[in-house]
Design goal:
Shape: globular
Order of helices and strands: HEHEHEHHHEEEEHHEHHHEHEEHHHHEHH
Number of helices: 18
Strand content: 5-15%
Helix content: 40-55%
Largest sheet: 6 strands, mixed
CATH class of the largest domain: Alpha Beta
CATH topology of the largest domain: D-Maltodextrin-Binding Protein, domain 2
Number of strands: 12
Radius of gyration: 30 Å
Length: 438
C-alpha cells in the first residue's frame, strides 16, 4: 500500500514536471517566433511616398531614385505619378493634408507653394538639419524660395527662371545689339517687322493663369516696382512703376508687335511659334533651349538668351521657378526622408539628373561643370539670368493674391478695363486679402 501511494505521488510529480517543461517550451517557442517576426519586420525596407507631376517622374526614377536605393537598401522611394499640371498636383497635396492623413512622406514643392504649406503646418522645419556652408552651394534665391518667416522648409533639386530668347541672326543682319530696355525691344521688333524679317516681334504668356503673373513680375521688376513686400505686406500694384509695366505689355499688343492671340497663349503656344521662325523675341523658360536647338528646328543655332529688358536705370528681372523637396510633418520616417533629400540634393546626384533631363541646376558649380556645358553650352550664360532671379512674394495667401492679379491683368490686357482702373482694383482687393493698408 505504501509503495502504491509513493508510486502515485511520483506519477503526479512527473506529470507536473512535464506540464512545466511544456509551458517553458511553449514560452520559449513563442518568444523566438516573435523575435523572428520582429526581425523580419525590421528588415523590411522603409517606403517613402512622393507625389510628382507626370513629366518629372521618369527622370527622377532613372537619375536619382535608382542610385539612392542602391546606396540605401533599407529605404524605398515610391513615386506616385500625378497630373501634368503643377496646380493639379498642388490640389492633390492640399486635399491629402486637409483630410488629416497625408500618405506622402516627401513633398515635391513648387517654389510658390512653400509659404502656403509651411504656414498651414504641413512641413517639418529643416533649418537645424543643414549648415550655412551647405546652403552656400546653392543659388541664394533658390534657398530663399525654401524659407518661410526665416525658417527653412525646402531644399532645391532644380531651378528654373524666366528668360528672354532672341533671334541672334536677325538682329545681327539688321545691325542691332541685343535689347536692354523696353524701348529697345519695341524699336527692334518694329524694324524687323517692317523689313519683313519676321512676322512678330515679341511673344509672351498672356492667358489668365500663373504664367501671366511670372511675365508681369519680370516686367514689374524691370520697371522698378514691386507687387507685395512680404515683410510689411505693403502692396505696390497701383504705383506708377506698376502702371509702366502694364503699359509695356499693352503696347506690344497695340503696336502689333505681339499677336492678338497672345492673351490666350501659354508657354507651349509661344514656344511653337518662336521655334517655327515666326518671331524675333520670346519670353519663356529654359526648357525651350534644347527643343529650339533640335536637329530639325528652323531656329537651331540662331538663338541666344539674356535677362528680360527693363526701364533705363533699372535692373533686369527673371522670375524664379523650380522645385524642391520638403518633409511632411505627418511622416513616420523623418530621418529616412531627410537622408533621401540629402542624396537628391548632393552634387553627383544632381549632376546625373541634369545630364539626363536637361533641367536647370540649383547648385551653382554645375552651371560651369565641363561635362554639363559640353551638352548644354548655354548654362554659363544662364547663370547670369539665375543670379537676377526674382521671388514671387512668399506669403501664406499667395494663391489668392495671384488670382487677384491674374484677373485684373487679363482685364486690362483685353481692354475691358483701363490700366489705372485695373491696378487700383487689384491693389485694393489685395490689401483687403492681406489686411494691410500699404
Amino acid at each position: 500500500m505504501l509503495y502504491r501511494q509513493l508510486f502515485n505521488q511520483l506519477q503526479k510529480f512527473l506529470q507536473k514536471l512535464r506540464s512545466w517543461r511544456a509551458g517553458v517550451f511553449l514560452s520559449v517557442l513563442l518568444s523566438v517566433t516573435l523575435l523572428l517576426i520582429w526581425r523580419a519586420i525590421a528588415q523590411q525596407p522603409v517606403t517613402l511616398n512622393l507625389l510628382m507631376p507626370a513629366p518629372d517622374v521618369q527622370p527622377m526614377r532613372e537619375a536619382m531614385v535608382k542610385g539612392f536605393e542602391a546606396e540605401n537598401p533599407g529605404i524605398r522611394i515610391n513615386i506616385v505619378e500625378g497630373p501634368n499640371a503643377a496646380n493639379a498636383v498642388e490640389d492633390l497635396y492640399t486635399s491629402a493634408f486637409l483630410l488629416g492623413g497625408s500618405p506622402y512622406d516627401l513633398i515635391n514643392l513648387d517654389v510658390i507653394w512653400t509659404s502656403k504649406f509651411a504656414a498651414a503646418g504641413w512641413l517639418l522645419d529643416l533649418t537645424d538639419r543643414v549648415t550655412k556652408e551647405e546652403l552656400a552651394a546653392f543659388s541664394s534665391q533658390d534657398v530663399e524660395g525654401g524659407r518661410y518667416q526665416g525658417r527653412l522648409y525646402r531644399l532645391p533639386i532644380r531651378s528654373d527662371v524666366g528668360m528672354l530668347y532672341y533671334r541672334e541672326d536677325l538682329l545681327k543682319a539688321a545691325g542691332f545689339e541685343p535689347p536692354e530696355t523696353f524701348e529697345d525691344l519695341l524699336k527692334i521688333s518694329q524694324t524687323l517687322q517692317q523689313q519683313d524679317r519676321t512676322n512678330w516681334g515679341f511673344l509672351w504668356q498672356g492667358r489668365q493663369y500663373e504664367g501671366l503673373v511670372t511675365v508681369f513680375v519680370e516686367v514689374l521688376e524691370g520697371a522698378g516696382g514691386f507687387w507685395i513686400n512680404p515683410d510689411t505686406l505693403e502692396v505696390g500694384l497701383d504705383r506708377p512703376e506698376s502702371l509702366r509695366a502694364v503699359e509695356f505689355l499693352r503696347s506690344t499688343l497695340q503696336q502689333g508687335i505681339s499677336p492678338p492671340g497672345v492673351t490666350t497663349y501659354i508657354e507651349e503656344d509661344t514656344r511653337r511659334i518662336f521655334q517655327s521662325g515666326q518671331a524675333a523675341f520670346l519670353r519663356n523658360w529654359p526648357y525651350v533651349w534644347p527643343l529650339a536647338n533640335e536637329e530639325n528646328s528652323p531656329v537651331r543655332g540662331k538663338i541666344a538668351i539674356k535677362p528680360m529688358v527693363h526701364a533705363p536705370g533699372q535692373s533686369a528681372g527673371a522670375t524664379l521657378g523650380g522645385w524642391g523637396l520638403g518633409i511632411a510633418k505627418t511622416t513616420r520616417h523623418p530621418d529616412e526622408a531627410w537622408r533621401a533629400i540629402q542624396y537628391f540634393t548632393n552634387r553627383e546626384a544632381q549632376r546625373r539628373f541634369i545630364l539626363q533631363a536637361g533641367y536647370v541646376p540649383s547648385r551653382l558649380d554645375l552651371f560651369t561643370d565641363p561635362e554639363i556645358v559640353a551638352v548644354y553650352p548655354h548654362f554659363p550664360q544662364l547663370l547670369e539670368v539665375v543670379e537676377n532671379a526674382v521671388l514671387r512674394p512668399p506669403i501664406a495667401q499667395y494663391a489668392q493674391a495671384s488670382d487677384i492679379l491674374q484677373r485684373y491683368l487679363s482685364g486690362t490686357l483685353t481692354n475691358r478695363m483701363s490700366p489705372e482702373q485695373a491696378m487700383r482694383a487689384a491693389a485694393n482687393e489685395t490689401r483687403r486679402l492681406l489686411g494691410s493698408r500699404g
